[in-house]
Design goal:
Structural class: alpha+beta
Largest sheet: 10 strands, mixed
Radius of gyration: 33 Å
CATH superfamily of the domain at 25-228: Brix domain
Distance between the termini: 86 Å
Mean pLDDT: 85
Order of helices and strands: HEHEHEEEEHEEEEHEEH
Helix content: 10-25%
């Protein structure tokens, strides 16, 4: 049984209320943990990822002895204490060199966990180029190959969750200056980070150039710990209050335009009033026939009433 913490002060009460479930959740925080035997490459990789995730990043610079794949209780405690739903743990040993364990939480428990081996690593500081502004929302590009296996599908979903940042309604085109590309080559996941520059031209379409800024690395999937389909669906479930209410006879097309359908009663076009033009005037013969038929109709109604 989990211990129920009751606040004793008003600030403590506000602190606990801020951690309670909400209809619109806060931006996801990421916890970066340094292992007891992490080398310089692993430590630098953790710092580079933390720089991309700022300000929603918490970095543990002290050495922590743990094995997340075998026992995740200590990791779950750290994530719950720091209100972090994403995590990344770095370690290094002879059996698994340059090891990164990344994953996410649901209801303070492990949802997905991926053990990735890092190869061909080049940190941010090795690229002598202009860097991206602080807390820039990146664009994500995934090439073909991530739909091959369930592990690749789930790791693609994890990277989208890891790098997507805050949800925005409007996008400034000048702010689209960071691109993170993922590709699958020979069962390895290649991660590349680019700076996007737009060059003005006389034509309507401008030229776009990509300049690699780091970090640069390749991942080898070593071990995974995936959630079941039922648990994953429950984690992705949206509250009923946030689902848009359906309106009758109103639809939206692919481009977001709203189309409505109006239902009207059947009309008698013979009695429709039009413009009084000479060509549309009734002839005397038509008027005579119409007046002859009207008394017959009245007689029929009188007989039915009797």
């Amino acid at each position: 049984m989990e211990k129920v913490v009751k606040p004793r002060t008003r600030p403590g009460k506000r602190f606990l209320e801020n951690r309670e479930p909400k209809l619109i959740e806060n931006d996801k925080r990421t916890l970066f943990i340094r292992g007891a035997n992490a080398n310089n490459n692993v430590l630098q990789a953790l710092k580079d990822f933390a720089a991309l995730k700022k300000p929603n990043a918490v970095f543990f610079n002290r050495k922590n002895e743990m094995k997340p794949i075998e026992d995740s209780s200590k990791l779950e405690f750290f994530c719950q204490k720091n209100d972090a739903s994403l995590f990344m743990f770095g370690s290094h040993n002879k059996k698994r060199p340059n090891n990164l364990v990344a994953g996410r939480m649901f209801d303070h428990h492990i949802l997905d966990m991926f053990e990735l081996g890092m190869e061909d690593f080049q940190p941010l500081k090795d690229f002598k180029t202009a860097k991206i502004a602080y807390s820039t929302k990146p664009m994500l590009l995934f090439t073909e190959g991530f739909e091959g296996t369930p592990e690749l599908q789930r790791i693609k979903n994890f990277f989208i969750d890891f790098f997507r940042g805050p949800i925005v309604e409007y996008v400034n085109l000048q702010g689209l200056e960071h691109l993170i590309a993922f590709s699958v080559v020979n069962n390895k996941i290649l991660l590349r980070s680019y700076r996007v520059t737009v060059n003005k031209s006389s034509s309507k379409t401008h030229g776009v150039e990509l300049e690699e800024i780091g970090p640069h690395m390749n991942f080898v999937i070593r071990r995974t710990k995936l959630a079941s389909e039922d648990l994953f669906k429950r984690a992705c479930k949206k509250p009923k209050e946030l689902k848009p209410k359906k309106k009758k006879n109103i639809q939206k097309d692919v481009f977001g335009s709203t189309h409505g359908r109006v239902h009207m009663e059947r009309q008698d076009y013979n009695r429709l009033q039009t413009r009084k033009l000479k060509g549309l005037k009734k002839r005397k013969s038509e008027i005579m026939e119409q007046t002859k038929n009207e008394p017959n109709v009245k007689k029929m109604k009188m007989e039915e009433s009797h």
